[in-house]
Amino acid sequence: MSLTSIPGKSRTMTMGSGTTKITERMTWKQLQQCVRDNREDFSKLLAQNFLLLHQQAKEKKDTTSIQTLDVIIAGIAEVSRAIEERKEEGDFLPVFSSAAFSIFSRLAESYNNPAVLKQAGLHYMSEWRLPGAALQHFQRALSLGGTENALRSLIEVAFIAVQRKKSPKRETADTGVTSPLASNPNVTQIIRETDKALITKTRRPSFNASQMARTMKLKPGVALPDVAKEALKAAAKEIINGNVAHAHELLLKAGKYPVKKEILCAMWSNLGRTCYQSNRYVEMEDAYTQAYVNDPTGGDTYFNLALAKSLNQKLTEAEALYQLAAKMDPSNPKVWCNLGVLYFQNDRFAEAEHVFRSAIKYRPDYARAWDNLASALSAQGKTEEAIVACQKAIEIRPGYPEAYFKLSAIYFGKGDPASLTEAASALGYVVNYAPLAASVNAMLSMIHSRMEQIDSAKASLQRAVESDPKCVLLPTVWNELETAIRGT
Length: 488
Prior knowledge:
By secondary structure, the protein is an all-alpha fold. Among the domains are: 3-166, Serine Threonine Protein Phosphatase 5, Tetratricopeptide repeat (Alpha Horseshoe); 176-197 and 401-488, Serine Threonine Protein Phosphatase 5, Tetratricopeptide repeat (Alpha Horseshoe). It has 24 helices and two strands. α12 runs antiparallel to α13, α15 runs antiparallel to α16 and α19 runs antiparallel to α20 (401-414). The longest helix has 27 residues, at 63-89. It is flat, with a radius of gyration of 30 Å. The two termini are 38 Å apart.
């Protein structure tokens, strides 16, 4: 559809603080000249043409076009308001470049095209820093049949950016919890925010192999009623199939009979592990509590129950259980590491360092302990020691992805050009590691922003969004990118 075929209409348009009387359209050639002349009222002139398109759609009762043009006109109005407001604040002003002109000329010809609406939204987002308008364009593109995979991630990140602009405390969109990363990122916060992929990744329950073997054979040592045998066999099957509630009932039923305690402990532990794998932490705690009842002297029992308590935020109880597990089996580095993670997450960095070193004392080749030690050292400002600890973890376990990411975060925290180069280099080893894809690309975007490599920062940000639109580092990435744009 071409604007040149639209007859002139007279109507009133309100934008920003002014009102414009529309009496005639402008050709795109005339509008292009306005861009070249850098006319301050260009956004109002541009809106005039889209308002005339809107009027034509109303005359045809074309509901689809009316709704799309409402989004486009609202976006142009937001540009006009931003120009007026940012002039007063001395802030970054939206500029109608040739690229922007090209986008709007294509919108005028094909405004119901999802691909063109997406391109307009990206321009609002990256070039003009107007995420509200971007969000509306992305959502409209999706409603018109745009590709879900191409638009959903953009909608998510635009929504996060909108929420950040609404809150002076930079609150995150999904939790409402103030993120300390947004205004002043450092390695401790980055590691904590990426906790699930990093420091707690290997905090999984322990299980005794011999107990597993005895459980599967189901030889209780004394004659059992058929009902007890059937309950145990059925529970084992339900655990394998992930039917937690039914398995729980069957094990309680079996426990009423004289089944050997070690078998019940193993069965409950197996159920707890299944709950852990499906993130059902309340049921996990209950299962490991039952395992503890049947074997209150086993180190693994304390360890697993402590893990369940910590995942349910019962930190005082978890700490006490980890300490008991450490007394019962001080040579177990997993106990020390999990206790250290608990200390780290609660800002008890010196204590975390101490117990991570205990893990290393009993097992010097435990890469995870060295990796976690790097976190505790960096949090105390012992940057060079932290780098050495990361390098030690990588030496023990070549290609260790979490250690490489952490090394990058530590170098990023130093901030000087040479360290930023080292930070980018470290990420080169994990850029194709899928579990960390969003965090790695988010970190790359921050590094590029600090280096004032704006295009590269935007490209990395886009990859981060595509990998995980809810990546916890995204609000920080937007902050770094905005700062870089202002400075260039």
